């Protein structure tokens, strides 16, 4: 499920996304997404089995906690989720809240992918993605506290102003937070 909204544009991003400071476009999009889910689910005589769901973006966690829970409930009513289904969401730690972590846990999200890219402030400024290690660590702690057990970090090498040393330091900082996986 592509949620094509962000609060700011990262200069490395190649995904179709819209920058918005308001929630109205997101809510309008969710209404259309529910319509599409309904249309797809009505095409078969019985509920289609689901083994994987991935919320990508943009920043899917810009959806409000209540709206996210309602969307997950709607999906589960329309499709037959397997007990072992992987339900994953991409997260921008800069806009992530404790309330959203709680909603993700309540929605049985079991994998979170945190956009880190680099912890080097010079690189972050160059790519318009300034976030502290503390923001990332807080997001990880909140996710784990609410039962989201599988966490991965997205890292990028080859960014402007990046050095071998800054890549190594970013990797060390990331590993110290004990993600289950690094996507590089």
Describe the protein:
The relative contact order is 0.14. α1 runs parallel beside α2, α2 (65-78) packs parallel to α3 (98-106) and α3 packs parallel to α5 (133-145). The chain has a single domain, classed as Aldolase class I (TIM Barrel), CATH 3.20.20. It has helices at 24-41, 65-78, 98-106, 121-127, 133-145, 164-176, and strands at residues 2-3, 5-6, 18-19, 49-57, 80-91, 111-117, 150-155, 181-183. The chain has 184 residues and is an alpha/beta fold. It is globular and about 55 Å long. The strands form two sheets. A six-stranded parallel β-sheet has the order 1-4-5-6-7-8. The model has no long low-confidence stretch (mean pLDDT 94). It contains six helices and eight strands; from the N terminus they run βββαβαβαβααβαβ.
């Amino acid at each position: 499920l592509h949620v094509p909204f962000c609060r700011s544009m990262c200069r490395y991003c190649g995904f179709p996304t819209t920058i918005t400071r308001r929630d109205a476009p997101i809510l309008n999009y969710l209404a259309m997404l529910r319509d599409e889910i309904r249309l797809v689910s009505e095409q078969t005589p019985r509920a289609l089995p689901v083994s994987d769901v991935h919320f990508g973006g943009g920043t899917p966690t810009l959806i409000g906690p209540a709206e996210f829970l309602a969307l997950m409930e709607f999906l589960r009513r329309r499709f037959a989720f397997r007990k072992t289904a992987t339900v994953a969401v991409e997260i921008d730690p800069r806009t992530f809240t404790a309330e959203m972590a709680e909603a993700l846990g309540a929605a049985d999200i079991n994998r979170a992918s945190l956009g880190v890219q680099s912890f080097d402030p010079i690189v972050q400024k160059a790519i318009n993605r300034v976030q502290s290690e503390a923001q990332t660590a807080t997001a990880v702690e909140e996710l784990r506290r609410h039962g989201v057990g599988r966490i991965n970090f997205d890292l990028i090498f080859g960014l402007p102003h990046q050095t071998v040393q800054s890549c190594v330091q970013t990797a060390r900082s990331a590993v110290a937070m004990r993600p289950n996986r690094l996507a590089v």
